[in-house]
Amino acid sequence: MTELTPAQKWTQEQAQADKDHHTPTAGAMTGHIVANLEVLSHKLLQASWYVTGLNRNSLREQFAHQREQAQTQLVTLGQMLIDEGEMAPSTTQEFVDYSMLEESGAFKYESATAMIDQLAHDYYTENLFVTRAIKLAQKEERPVLAAFLTELLGSNNHNIAELQAMLGRYGLEGLAEEDEDD
Question: Which superfamily does CATH assign the domain made up of 27-177 to?
Answer without folding.
Answer: Ferritin, core subunit, four-helix bundle (1.20.1260.10)
